[in-house]
Records
---
Amino acid sequence: MMRAVVIHAPRDLRIDRITVADPGPGEVRVRLAAGGICGSDLHYYQDGGFGTVRIMEPMILGHEAAGTVVAVGEGVTTVGAGDRVAINPSKPCGRCRFCIAGHRQQCLDMRFYGSAMRFPHMQGIFRDEMVVAAAQAVPVGQDTPLEEAAFAEPLSVALHAVTEAGSLVGKRVLVTGTGTIGCLVVLAARHAGAAEIVATDVSDPALAIVGKIGADRALNVASAPQALATFGADKGYFDVAFECSGNGRVLTGLPEVVKPRGVITLIGLGGETALPVNLLVTKEIALRGSFRFDAEFAWATRLLAHRAVDVRPLLSGTFPLERAVEAFELAADRSRAMKVQLSFNE
């Protein structure tokens, strides 16, 4: 019997006991070491879901984690017992037209760990051990700290967004919203060759972190609502903007500061909002969405293994499994935390 972090109802988070099977053909069993609490985990914990997605049965939370392979099933050659791995929470079907076309993040039958979007729910990763398909256990190198390897999933989201925006070499970049994803977009954009990065948020603690990890300027648009106004001169300043806050009012203002033939990439999820369509048309601005990731997961593990992207400044705290409720409460407080992780098997 193994421990797992299970949400039963809003604010009803329990440490339950579950069974773990032996790996079958093509599978591996992983002993978890570190798991990061994501925004969707917080939605399940605080509200029981988001939008029309609601918890209909007890569900193990978590989709950001890394650990060590302890057993492999028949036919597995990609990893062996003792290998350190990050777990890719995406399990696309491989058969639908999007998978065949190479856009597996749009899979028609996606199974994503820790998600209540389907019923029965896809149980998550926050547990002592679990069995996964060998392809989902991606090696991170034996010297990579597992708390850093657990950033592979959110870093993949940032890398996918940067890829969707096109080349950033020598470009001026704006990042709006500096939660974990926004900060990782800053790191990914700098790695991709951005010449200048400006970041905005309404939280001074978050902006202090983004300033340390590579943003040239960090602007608080709550205390200085007109902070971006000067960037609208001469048809705009930025080549690319990444909208990570999910705030419709932020999105509405971006066409003013993005120059003609620039790109606005949307990552943050939010409600419906009105857009200045005439400005988008006359400035020939490309508006793109970016959802999850695919091949970027393996890229993320390589960057983390070589510390080409240093995520250490983003880790605000680590809690043992038994203190999961305390960890979730801290993770929900943006004034005190960026990324909070659970530690397993201690």
Note: The longest strand covers residues 27-36.
---
Amino acid sequence: MNKNFSLEICVGSIESCFEAEKGGADRVELCDNLFEGGTTPSISTIIYAKEHLTLDTMVMIRPRGGDFLYSDVEFELMKKDVEYCKKIGVKGVVFGLLMSDGKVDKQRVKELVEIAKPLDVCFHRAIDMSNDYLVAGRDIVDCGCNRILTSGQANKAIEGVDNIFSLQHLLGNKIEIMAGSGVNEDNVAEIYEKTKINAFHLSAKRTIKGNMIFHQKNVSMGGVDSVSEYDIIQTDCNRVKKVRDKLTRLFL
């Protein structure tokens, strides 16, 4: 595989991990609760991925959905999760913390980076919720992170390409900038052309009908009206391969 670019797949299950692997991804970001933007997966999921995948595994460290201002108890949980990931030897961890005024919480980020060493550390899309995008980028570099995942302070990366380009231009080779949110086989070439970054993050998902024959139509367990309890959201290896093939041609 061409190594002038990196392709990371955001996965919410072990089955999705295997699909990402079959499609030719470089690594996975292992999460739970993708509809909340991703939270920390279970210990058993992390262990299984570590034992059965050939791909590098980045683990989301996020104790809940919602904002990125965490209580003292939540921060203690994050520290313990990072310690555990380091103990079992995953490739890296993914987190992001902000203060109430929208600045990067540099003190806590630095603390987690120190705990994680020598693991890779990615600061996730919390940067897109910061009060000053470029200042936040410099702060993240100061904290010692290896990578920033960003949509350029837009809902989708394709809409935030100008900001992503500005961040890449500002930070240069001090840190890897990775585009994420809505990246797919139809827009990855345009994102590359407009940002000149070489790292891409996507879910490449599809909806699979579950095997339940009986459907209880009067009850919703998940609380998300647009998502059926009888559908399974899973990474599609064919979509991963399409993105990989497009990137391979771009980076020839």
Note: Residues 72 and 249 are 47 Å apart (CA to CA).
---
Amino acid sequence: MTDVPLIDLTPWYSGDPVARRQVATDVDRALCEVGFLLVTGHPVSAVLADRLREEVRPFFALPTTDKAELACFPGGRGWIPAGAEANARSDGLDTPPDLKESFTFGPEVLPPAVVGTAEEEWFGPNSWPAELPALEPAATTYADACAALAEDLLRVLALALDLDEDFFVSRCTGNTWSVNLNWYPAREVVGCVLPGQMRIGQHTDFGMLTLLDRQPGSGGLQVRALDGAWVDAPFVPGALTVNAGDLLARWTGDRWRSTPHRVLPPPAEIPTEELLSLVFFHEADPLTVVETLLTAAAGPTRYEPVTAGQFLRSRMDSITVG
């Protein structure tokens, strides 16, 4: 398989065991061979994504001084300004900062197990712009729909490995998701693009599963194939892009690939192209110990056990500029 496959999840929701097994087989193959897939037949309505884009777009148009009141570092809650991240540094590349801004948020319910530990930092509080009162309800409604889909996908993954249905769900309770609303300004806004500078430099995602609602564009998403070539990720209206992260790859001994990807720089030939991506990261609970499965389904790599929170923190530190 060299292309990012398109998988219809409708049979999964039919409840038919044979149909569910086929969906699990298809998802397993996609994650083994590509690490990415597109899914349709899911319950995340395009109406929710459209509404969220409509509500967050004015935030990025605010003066920098207004946005700066909500500024945070990568991994925090609020506004991550341009120049704050260089994602390719997580792959050991010394590149200029990424050409994007982000608004980030996550759940604020603090699980009792993390009270008094360093892992409290994953749980807010969120910082919402007072000028945009409709943003919070639009964002949380969208995130709730993504969280439900992510749980469904974790059950698909468990079936693919013949594990207990709740093997992954019980270790990813939904309280450690986060959302990045990534704004990629147009070339006419960013001006000069430095050599090697991208909207997001090449990297792998750090956690479990990523659900991405994106817009098509010339300066869009590319995935690195097994032969090292960069391939444009296909765009299908209504489909979400799903990929495995580093923790899921570690858990499965690299049976499932955490595939490098990047977002191209704003195209000079289309100087007005700006894009707005909605990125939902579904993570393991921060105190969960992730260790390679000791089953025949696991891949060839045996990783040392890590706690999810410690691992994510180290990876966030690697991309932070300054």
Note: The domain at 6-319 is CATH 2.60.120.330 (Jelly Rolls).
